[in-house]
Design goal:
- The structure is a homodimer.
- The first copy, chain A, is about 45% helix and about 20% strand.
- Chain A is an alpha/beta fold and about 200 residues long.
- The interface between A and B is large, with 60 and 59 residues.
Chain lengths: ~200, ~200
Amino acid sequence: MSQEIPEIIIGRLPLYLRALKRLKMTGQGYTSSKELGEVLNLSPAQIRKDLSQFGELGTRGQGYQIKFLINKLHQILNLERTHDMAIVGAGDVGEALAKYKNFIHCGFQVTTIFDNDEEKIGTKMSGIVVQNSAEMTRVIIEKEIEIALLTTPAKSAQEVADQLVKAGIKAILNYAPIELKVPEGVHVEHIDPAVHLQKLSYYLG
Amino acid sequence: MSQEIPEIIIGRLPLYLRALKRLKMTGQGYTSSKELGEVLNLSPAQIRKDLSQFGELGTRGQGYQIKFLINKLHQILNLERTHDMAIVGAGDVGEALAKYKNFIHCGFQVTTIFDNDEEKIGTKMSGIVVQNSAEMTRVIIEKEIEIALLTTPAKSAQEVADQLVKAGIKAILNYAPIELKVPEGVHVEHIDPAVHLQKLSYYLG
């Protein structure tokens, strides 16, 4: 698989996958770029162009076979196995993520939680014992975890990220309201509800 | 203010604002497109181009005065007043959002929470009484709330969104894992951690 596919296209593949899974639940066998475009607010041409990056995935006249395309997207996105994840920061956001039921349907599971607060260490969150952050590097290496959900306060986020990278973490979903610096080969996605809200409030005019 | 500024630029303004606020905390008076670019992983040219959409905000040689630029961005993004928000869905995600301390520093506050679960109605979440969803339209109109945080399950999300639109909601931050259909003039931002994780897992290769 080529590594040179633009990141913006990779970012749309999970949306295609989510839409396809919903269509499959209705019992439908095939879909079209037109139908997917309506669901996703994208032009049919954009969808055909995106998917054509990965080979001939549809048939002219018939469209896309839903089951085939779902399998193909699972392959492309490395979703054929379940990925273990570590939460760092057992606060409210960490707790909501630990309880989040949709992860397992999407190929992910939280297996490990860390915090540096002595009152939290040893307690359970969604059935998982909160471990001491001091053990973080060792545990992540032992468990070969590649994905971390970073939910610490902003002031400690970069330091924690540096430790995660040293422990071999390759992907960070960052909930701390700060941009993280990571070396090449490590990928970060940032979720900050305030940023989305401030964008929305522009349109309140 | 022109409504024709591309959405992708509007989406970057909150990131500029967040970076500027952090620089201001260090006591710094001025910044440059180069410095902002380093913080945000954007080219200095991109930053100058984005900001030039809103007039002459910097001075050649001196750069951008941080305090002035923060005020200007507050103006552009309608952040000069605090926006009230309603949470619909008092589950784990709703609760984490109700407790989220960063909102108030960013211009937002949760004032109202709705759920249709009789066991939750009347209980308090982060000091706010959970109200019956049946009252949603009336309460939102009365309180003139324009922003909703939608944290219901996927299956009821579209129906709730339709009701919110009828009640006058203009902006929805959608945590339900489904694309919402809304009429023109209503804006939706979607937060789905699974979508971000599936993008990240592509790079785990």
